[in-house]
Input
Amino acid sequence: MNSDTTTTAPVRVVLADDEAMIRAGVRAILATDPGIEVVAEAGDGRAAVELVRAHRPRVALLDIRMPRLDGLSAAAEIRRLVPGTATVMLTTFGEDDHIARALGHGASGFVLKSGDPRELIAGVHAVADGGAYLSPRVARRVIELGGGRLARRPVARDRTAGLTDREREVLALVGAGLSNAEIARRLYLVEGTVKTYLTSIFTRLEVRNRVQAAILAYEAGLVEE
Output
């Protein structure tokens, strides 16, 4: 048995979707990974916020469209009330405008309900480790439909042109969904140095969070599709 699985606690997740069958399917997928534990489920956004406050999970997996409180508003409340919990949005292509809006609410990940189940597991682990995760199809779609809110490719290239070579490397790995620890290992750096690079990158690019930085990395052509 891998020693990591015995010494590392599983990622605790609160799952929220108003459709019981969707919740059951998502729970079944997550249950295939011993490193993930669903600690509570909610059928609406208000209940999701309360469960996050009660359980303090590492990740909240939220449907965008829910009664009482939608996923975007729930993500904003979770960010304010329980900043240690990262949020991953469950999305469909019919919710493009909501995906773009969610960037301003601090969401750390976007996963398609109809996507590869492995993306769901990868997304949970990525945001739990402090990274960001964008389903590749979601990232491309957001870029296509971003209009004035998201930089078009020439503008994105201009914005990233002022970065150093190392900063561009770090930004590309953020776009690929890697956590700070994973970036540090990939580039043979200490994690504190990665954080310093990220602070500089976010300031130079005028982005609020890792997801905005990741989308900019995609749009600038720094991430292989």
